[in-house]
Amino acid sequence: MILIHMKPVFDVLRRRLMLAGAGAAVAALLDPALVLAAPGARLKLQQTDARYAPVDRLADLVIPSTDTPGASAAGAAAFVLLALDRRISDLEPAMLDRLRTALDAAAHAGFFMLPRAQQERVLAEFDRAAYAGAAAPGSAPHAWQRIKAAILVGYYTSEIGASQELVYDPVPGGTTPVKVTPDFRSSVYDGMGGALAG
Q1: Which site in 72, 144, 168, 179 is 20 to 30 Å from 101, CA atoms measured?
Q2: Residue 117, Cα to own-chain centre: how many angstroms?
Q3: Average per-residue pLDDT in the chain?
């Protein structure tokens, strides 16, 4: 009689053990540091990465703070590093080295050692050249196109980008003409179709 009443308890325990085991198996396949760390701790891990400061500066040059926080405040660099390391949308860690070498050559010095105004000028010229024609895969212009796209996606999918920069439109669509003024902001539904566009 006791065993009959206890059977449902054993079934529940077996299911829980099975689910716990499955969860542990999935966690074992992932990066332990990222699995065990909370989101804030993951950001701190990435900020200790030597690549974080240069990527953060690039993100800040692409989307500086204005009346809304920029890409640096949004933590876009953490997204870019994650995308590079996980090879999301054809990104790869070597792209960052190629880009840094090309920026140093364009600056005739260490790009990241220059004052901000010079960095803005060098990056603007490099950006124009990178988008002037088709960039060959493996080239520095191609690397910049991919990294810049990751900065944009990292920013506009962040809490800051999505809630402070973009305007929420509960009923998107329509064909209303839009006058673009200096204070114009895109709608949260404009573009960003899911892939990192180059």
Answers
A1: 72
A2: 25
A3: 78
pLDDT per residue over 15-42, tens digit each?
444 444 444 444 443 444 433 334 454 5
Helices (H), 86-168: 94-107, 116-130, 140-156, 159-160
Structure tokens at 132: 């002037």
Q: Which residue has the higher pLDDT, 120 or 172?
A: 120
Distances (CA, A) of 128 to 4, 19, 24, 99, 179: 76, 53, 48, 14, 26
- Give 42's contacts (C-beta < 8 A, 6+ positions apart): 33, 34, 78
Alpha-helix runs per DSSP H in 30-115: 32-36, 39-47, 52-62, 76-85, 94-107
Q: Enter the tokens of residue 76.
A: 């876009």
